[in-house]
Design brief:
CATH class: Alpha Beta
CATH topology: Hypothetical Protein Ychn, Chain: A
Strand order of the largest sheet: 4-3-2-1-5
Strand content: 15-25%
Shape: globular
CATH architecture: 3-Layer(aba) Sandwich
Largest sheet: 5 strands, parallel
Low-confidence stretches: 4-25
Distance between the termini: 52 Å
Order of helices and strands: HEHEHEHEHE
CATH superfamily: DsrEFH-like
Radius of gyration: 19 Å
Number of helices: 5
């Protein structure tokens, strides 16, 4: 009976310890963030948040990515709407990413996507993949 209890406790501790170690290995001990947004106007407070986290966390701050999806994805092709945010994101070390699925669905000309932005095939899937790597995520 004692060996059964000991074995059970040992197994549970091993499971939780291994899970914790895996999350640390995938983020290199840094705090990484991903935000999925549907509105270009939300880029302003998101970038301000990234700047504040970077200042607050110092060396513990890692990567910050913003994925833009949804029906307003076409706004990223309008220089008057997006250029200012691209500059602010670059200065803050934030990556702006366009959802390819949204670009296709809403028939946005991919050649007009700013060259300083990355395009992924599926923004929602990419968000989940980053979460699996330990990124903290929020959708706005």
């Amino acid at each position: 009976m004692k060996s059964y209890i000991f074995s059970s406790v040992f197994f549970i501790l091993t499971l939780f310890t291994t899970t914790h170690m895996t999350a640390q290995e995938s983020t290199d001990g840094k705090n990484n963030y991903v935000v999925l947004t549907k509105k270009i106007a939300q880029l302003q407070p998101i970038i301000l948040t990234a700047e504040a986290l970077k200042a607050e966390e110092g060396d513990a701050y890692g990567d910050f990515q913003i994925i833009i999806c949804g029906k307003e994805i076409g706004d990223i092709t309008d220089p008057e709407k997006i250029d200012h945010f691209i500059e602010k994101a670059e200065k803050a070390g934030v990556q702006l990413i366009a959802c390819g699925f949204s670009l296709n669905k809403f028939k946005v000309d991919k050649t007009k996507v700013p060259t300083k932005m990355t395009t992924v095939e599926n923004g929602i899937l990419y968000n989940f993949q980053l979460q699996k790597k330990g990124y903290k995520s929020i959708t706005l």
